[in-house]
Design a protein that fits this description.
It is a single chain. With about 180 residues, this protein is of the alpha+beta class. The chain has one domain. It contains three helices and ten strands; from the N terminus they run αββββββββββαα. The strands form two sheets. An eight-stranded antiparallel barrel has the order 1-2-3-4-5-6-7-10. A two-stranded antiparallel ribbon has the order 8-9. A hairpin with a 2-residue loop joins strand 5 and strand 6. The chain is elongated, with a radius of gyration of 20 Å. The mean pLDDT is about 90.
Amino acid sequence: MKRVILIGALLLVAAAAVGLAYWFYPRTVDFEAQGMKYRLGTEAAVEERPLKVSIQGKIYRNFKGERTFKGTIGLEGEDIPVPEDQRTVELKRYRSFNAYALTYPFIENGKPRIYSQGTLFVNDDFSKIAIALFEHEGDEGHWGADDGLVIAAPASNRAEAVALSNEVMREFLQGLVLK
């Protein structure tokens, strides 16, 4: 009887160890795809261009299940005022929708700065992404669902990009449909 209890306890401990390892083991993100940058709104339907999107890094999860992405995000043709050697980001998922504030803390001339590029929306396995890009005027940035800029990948045309954006941003949009 003692032997059965001991074996059962060992199996329970082993199962808990495997579960914890699965929970905390970082997931690798290796996403490269052709995407589209486009402006929302029916009048702006001609403002679009293809670009390559690259996301490399790892997703970490804490005891509460909160996710953090650590890695790099490359958007072909998008210039950001952050030195190349300081473009590694640590992004925390916020709210219930898979959204990450795409911010780059960096040092310029010995002073700390932060550049906000937008908000990254993803599906659970990082195989579909949409980025609501901030448009900068001076040190301020903004985005609007009626005429904002979006990058979506994988997508080969505007229709695919808009459909993908609506899919990964669904909870954030709360019933609104991007056009």
